[in-house]
Design brief:
By secondary structure, the protein is of the alpha/beta class. The protein contains 7 helices and 9 strands, in the order αβαβααβββββαββαα.
């Protein structure tokens, strides 16, 4: 019974808050995957349901990243790397300064942001990601291919491995 619960828990992404991620990062440094969303974003909800709910995606993220789910319109202050970031009101809505920082000023949702082990932004990737494109991206960054392999070459290599693994 316990092993079933543990197995099931591993099939869901273990989302952390910014504070929890930073505590974990001090214990053991890892890359970080941040899902930046808003409550009103339909594509964000679709990506939650169709991509992040896939067991193989969840397991890979849990094993290779600290995962943070971050509402870009979060109203409370966040301390990150010793600096305080706040909500900025703009008309009837607004956004969080930390979202603006990690999205490099491009507030587009959903966006998945990858941070390195030193909590520096590797790259924000805007737009809906299906499970196949998410698989490519999470492996590209987790395995450090981004450091020396151009994206186009990586996708070609990855597709070749997939075909070989499938026995073609």
């Amino acid at each position: 019974m316990i092993s079933i619960s543990v197995s099931h828990a591993q099939d869901e992404i273990q989302w952390l808050t910014w504070e929890e991620m930073q505590v974990m990062q001090k214990r053991k440094a890892r890359k970080v995957l941040i899902d930046v969303y808003t409550d009103w974003c339909g594509w964000c909800k679709r990506m939650d349901k169709n991509t992040f709910q896939k067991a193989d995606i969840a397991r890979y993220i849990n094993n290779n990243y600290y995962a943070v789910k971050f509402d870009a319109e979060y109203k409370d202050d966040i301390i990150f790397n010793g600096l305080k970031y706040s909500y900025v009101k703009s008309g009837r809505k607004g956004h969080h300064e930390l979202a603006e920082l990690i999205l490099k000023g491009r507030l587009s949702f959903p966006t998945v942001v990858f941070l390195d082990e030193g909590l520096k932004v590797i790259q924000p990737i805007p737009g809906y990601q299906d499970s196949r494109s998410m698989e490519l991206k999470i492996t590209y960054f987790a395995r450090d291919y981004y450091k020396d392999t151009p994206w186009k070459k990586y996708t070609t290599m990855y597709n070749s491995y997939m075909i070989q693994d499938a026995g073609f």
